[in-house]
Amino acid sequence: MTGRLNSAQPYALGLFRIVIGLLFACHGAASLFGVLGGAMGGGTVDAGTWPGWYAAVIQLVGGGLVALGLGTRAAAFISSGSMAYAYFKVHQPEALWPMQNGGEASAIFCWAMLLLVFTGSGALGLDRLFASRGASETKAASERTPVAA
Known about the structure:
It is a single chain. The protein is mostly helical. The chain has helices spanning 2-33, 52-68, 72-91, 98-101, 104-119, 126-144. α3 (72-91) runs antiparallel to α5 (104-119). The relative contact order is 0.14.
């Protein structure tokens, strides 16, 4: 059983990355464009306002990159930091526990993105596609080029 689960691990990680990335991007889209219920129950965040607008841009772009598996580790690192900032500056001063201060989403996104920093994109990501393509091109080029002694 363990062997079968271990062989499925890259695919489970890839699906986890896609779901987390899409949910994160939806938060950014809601804040920037007012879709999916908008920011804070309706409307949008004013352009250039700190920290809401910048957080929404990070959510939209970072979530999209994570969902695609493109630059996953860097995008997840920035996204995780953004959510840590949101939790400690916006939610935590209200109360200690996330259940009390409304910071559950920030805490979960922070830790999920931090996990992706260490695990990478898993299967089904563009990172792997480009890495395997680059490796095969490098190998093919080294086979064609004679080495002079």
